[in-house]
Design brief:
- With about 325 residues, the protein is an alpha/beta fold.
- The chain is built from 9 helices and 12 strands.
- The strands form 2 sheets. An 8-stranded mixed beta sheet has the order 6-7-8-3-9-10-12-11, with helices on both faces. A 4-stranded antiparallel beta sheet has the order 2-1-4-5, with helices on one face.
- The structure holds adenosine-5'-triphosphate and magnesium ion (MG).
- Adenosine-5'-triphosphate binds next to strand 1, strand 2 and helix 1.
Length: about 325
């Protein structure tokens, strides 16, 4: 590990099982996360990518403390927070902030922007009124919102402006880690690039550490330092962005990235990934989860579940035929 790569968050073998109703009486286990492990390094952006339902939001919620992990650990600031609620986490909770997908429902409609931004400063810092105002104004400049907006309410803004406000709110306490769950996918296409650029500028200026959840490969290409590819609740590949785009090892990654457009095209769920149904997280197959959609499948792939193999140079992949093709 190079000097510049300090681990900020360590996710190890996290499992999340939901008990879901099937039919009128029966309940079954839904395996939303299966032994998910990854590291997030200080000042870097890790993108979590994968199709709908693969568990991206669930891992985000476990990290935030909104869901308790069924098993596994999430180490942040030398503390395992995997089973702690936000309240139990105490002061360290302010160091993880979230930007949500929907800027319409994530801002309290009854509060002025000023109140939304000032409240965390009142609760978590000893700043005086003047200092709080100066902090807010400087952040408004950073995220590109006019100072006069502070006196207005969320409904007076467009989606893009609201997302800028949501970004300001996430940043106001200078958190150690930002979780961004599809922060641009609900926005107008014409606005998406602006918000992406803003996030990239802020990353450079504040050396932000971000876990960026997306299903959009073109976004991954722009924003990431590292990428974790998820499939059916597990990481199937993890590597630096450059390594992953140059040298994808998992057939699923290969399929996703083979269609990378430069401008916005949603994850190619409907084109290249037509092959086979996604397995259900309720009755998981005993072999490789991707086998039924994999062009390289052999019988052995369906016999036992593959482990995530460390290929060196921080590149890991989970495929029974790794290195064969
Ligand atoms: N509260 C819950 N109760 C039961 N099942 C849940 C719950 N939350 C998520 N799931 C299930 O867990 C799996 C993972 O869901 P999750 O929302 O994490 O996927 P995702 O990758 O974020 O998908 P999307 O791209 O659509 O946002 C899905 O099968 C989903 O139905
Ligand atoms: Mg989600």
């Amino acid at each position: 590990m190079s000097q510049s790569e300090v681990k900020l968050l360590e996710v190890r073998d996290v499992e999340k099982i939901f008990s879901v109703k099937v039919g009128s009486f029966e309940k079954k286990d839904l395996h939303a996360l299966n032994k998910v492990s990854f590291d997030v390094f200080k000042g870097k952006t890790l993108s979590l990518v994968g199709e709908s339902g693969c568990g991206k939001t669930t891992i985000g919620k476990v990290i935030l403390g909104l869901y308790e992990a069924t098993n596994g650990s999430v180490v942040f600031q030398d503390k395992d927070i995997a089973k702690l609620s936000p309240a139990q986490r105490g002061i360290s909770q302010k160091d993880i902030q979230m930007i949500f997908q929907d800027p319409y429902s994530s801002l309290n409609p009854r509060k002025k922007i000023k109140t939304i931004l000032e409240q965390p400063l009142k609760i978590h810092t000893k700043m005086k009124k003047k200092e709080r105002l100066a902090t807010m104004l400087s952040l408004c400049d950073d995220v590109g919102i006019d100072h006069t907006y502070l006196e207005r309410y969320p409904h007076q803004f467009s989606g893009g402006q609201r997302q800028r406000i949501a970004i300001a709110r996430a940043m106001i306490l200078k958190p150690e880690l930002i979780l961004a769950d599809e922060p641009i996918s609900a926005l107008d296409v014409s606005i998406q690039a602006q918000i992406l650029n803003l996030m990239m500028d802020l990353k450079d200026k504040y050396k932000l550490t971000t876990l960026f959840i997306t299903h959009d490969i073109s976004v991954v290409k722009h924003l990431s330092d590292y990428v974790a590819v998820m499939y059916l609740g597990e990481i199937v590949e993890y590597a630096s962005k450059d390594e992953l785009f140059k040298n994808p090892k998992h057939p699923y990654t290969e399929m996703l990235f083979s269609t990378v457009p430069d401008i916005r095209t949603p994850l190619a769920t409907e084109s290249v990934l037509k092959t086979g149904e996604i397995q259900s997280p309720i009755d998981l197959p005993q072999g490789c989860f991707f086998a039924n959609r994999c062009p390289y499948k052999v019988d052995a792939c369906e016999q036992s579940h593959p482990e995530l193999v460390d290929l060196g140079n921080k590149h890991l992949a989970r495929c029974p035929r790794i290195g064969e093709f």
